[in-house]
Amino acid sequence: MSDADLVLEGGGVRGLGTAGAVIRLLEEGYTFQRVAGTSVGAVAAAFVAAGMGAEELREVMEDLELSLIPDRERLGPRPMPGVPMLSEGVSLLRRHGAYQGAWIHDWIRTVLARKKVTTFADLRREDSGDSAGLTDDQKYKLVVMATDVTRGRLLRLPWDYHLYGLKAEEQSVADAVRMSLSIPFYFQPRALTHGGTGQDSVIVDGGVLSNFPVEVFDRTDGEKSRWRTIGVRILPDLPAGMAQLFSLPALKLFPLLHLLQQVVTTAVVGNDQSHLDRPGVRERTIAVDLPALGVTDFGLDLAQRQEAVQRGWHAADAYVKRCPTDPD
Questions:
Q1: Top-level CATH class of 2-73+93-322?
Q2: 121 pLDDT band (50/70/90 cuts)?
Q3: How would residue 22 be classed by pLDDT, with cut points 50, 70 and 90?
Q4: Which one of 36, 171, 231, 287 is most buried, by most CB atoms within 10 A?
Q5: What backbone torsions phi and psi does residue 144 show, to the nearest 5 degrees?
Q6: Cα 222 from chain centroid (whole Å)
Q7: Contact 266/184 with Cβ under 8 angstroms?
Q8: Which positions are annotated as active-site residues?
Q9: Cβ distance 310 to 302 under 8 Å?
Q10: Radius of gyration from C-alpha coordinates of the chain
Q11: What pLDDT sits at residue 79?
């Protein structure tokens, strides 16, 4: 086996490619000491941090019912289903997101519970060889990225819970991942309440500020890294592929929101691109090519899903052949 850290980019349905890549790396014998992710990358990261192996991850992803993820909010006091377009429009105006995000939240919680992971206390790690500068709040197997639009800052959870008067070990892993999944205008944002003041912060997708935080585990004490960091990227460089990345018909009802969505999409893809061009970054990155697959294409059929997973598997296989695991 070979130790490594793993960082997974956000990208909605394109995360099927992430799953395929991670499955191949696990098959190769990698043991991931720490895992970080944004948005859908945070989902896969949480599952890997919880101890899933290749076959278990494959089974979980095959069982995921993509069509249930865009969960329309019910209209009116009676239990009637949401109405297409109308429900999304009302939710955008009332709750700043077309879909609730409740179904995917419950699914993540259920899957993690099967691995006996509920709070970050279940993902605690102690390693005397870690960077000397790590705080107690940074000694966890998992880090997920989210964006606090109230305070205007990137959140690295569980590292930053202390800023809100909260104990990291007591916080729900599924809640943190759901915060990271809050694609602006698509899923309703989440609230993070300060434990002391009671003030709420509005939290959206981590990709707004850091969609591919491949440097998050780099040592800061000047010592040589004990193992490599492997990143998995699923979005194309700008300007390629921008048109198919994000599609929400209801936004066309609100021209201003549609413009803002385009700004956000550009930020999600472009914010990390300058970092990717720094020396050595792309060399530790597996880029999964997923042409014509949009972030919100939740209507994929079985063959399309399998193709996306296979593309990720083959991208990681090429990396494994180029960069074999370290000798034991």
A1: alpha beta
A2: very high
A3: very high
A4: 36
A5: -120, 145
A6: 29
A7: no
A8: 39, 205
A9: no
A10: 19
A11: 44
